[in-house]
Amino acid sequence: MLGEEEDGESRAVGAAAFSVQAEEGDTRQRYEELCSSLNMDGRARCEAWLSYQNMKRNFTLEGNDLHWLARALYMACRKAVPTVSKGTAEGNYVSLTRILCCSEQSLIEFFNKMKKWEDMANLPAQFRERTERIERNFTISAVIFKKYKPIFQGIFRYPQDQPRQQRGRKQRRQPCTVTEVLQFCWVLFVHAKGNFPMISDDLVNYCHLLLCALDLVYGNALQCPNCKELLNPNFKVFLIVGLTEDFHNKDYKVSSDPPCIIEKLCSLYYGLALEAKGIKEHFWKPYIRKIFDKKLLKGKDENLTGFLDPGSFGDSLEAEGAGSERVPEEWQHGKPS
């Protein structure tokens, strides 16, 4: 009897061990798939896995293992590594937006578990402060995006289901669609806000920066004959800036410089006109001029127009869109959340 009991216990222990190995094997496979989707380099991939295993040996990690691994990857990506010039640089930079998307988790869940990870790993205050800053940044972006949707819809026509334009260099350039303008304007704002740490963490400043982006894109749409049909005909601001009712006609000639609608946008969407104009002059316009000089936006750099023209828009969209926060798919196709 004793031998049978010991044999049964051995089988139970063996089965449990096999189950743990199978579970770990499944986790490793899902992790490798995550790394492949993020185009993760070997150093960060290996370091994150070892960090996760060490954490799991010492603590109970509740919930989805892949979500914990995403945190380990995020930290490994931002670890300083030696460079050829004997300095240091941040490792394989992968945007947090992509990590969240590929690991299928929410922003709130990510940061809640990140704080637990920081406590368990006893990370230094510098890393914790950086995480808090990124969390604030993303939270503000989420609030701003909720404001962006109704403002964009007021200025431009509502995005409808449209096939994605294929914009190869050898193909005939097609006019941009309202969905592409929706995406482009948001990405332009995201790039800009990352370049102004002196006005970061301030919701009002970010709202004004967003109005600057919309002002610029609206002015460019007026200048481009192919884009006038993208504008919302019920947006009557054109009467204020000196245009007539027939400006939608292709033969209508607008002035060489795009109009400024910042003041009107502020009156419609609770902005402070004086502060918004100050941000436009001292932050926004110098930044846009700089990316024109770098050929990230292509058009007429003397008045910052022309980037919505068919010959320029594809290149500008590609340059601005790489690796950025993107407009959610459900709203691109006329399904607002």
A few lines on this structure:
By secondary structure, this protein is mainly alpha-helical.
Q: Could you characterize what this model shows?
A:
- Helix content is 61%, strand content 2%.
- The protein contains 13 helices and 2 strands, in the order αααββαααααααααα.
- The protein has helices at residues 2-37, 42-58, 65-77, 96-103, 107-121, 125-155, 178-193, 203-223, 237-240, 262-268, 273-293, 310-321, 329-332, and strands at residues 80-82, 88-90.
- The chain has a two-stranded antiparallel ribbon with strand order 1-2.
- Helix 2 packs across helix 3 (65-77), helix 3 runs antiparallel to helix 4 (96-103) and helix 6 packs across helix 8.
- The longest helix is centred in the N-terminal third of the chain and has 36 residues, at 2-37.
- The termini are far apart.
- Mean pLDDT is 78; it is low at 12-20, 80-90 and 327-337.
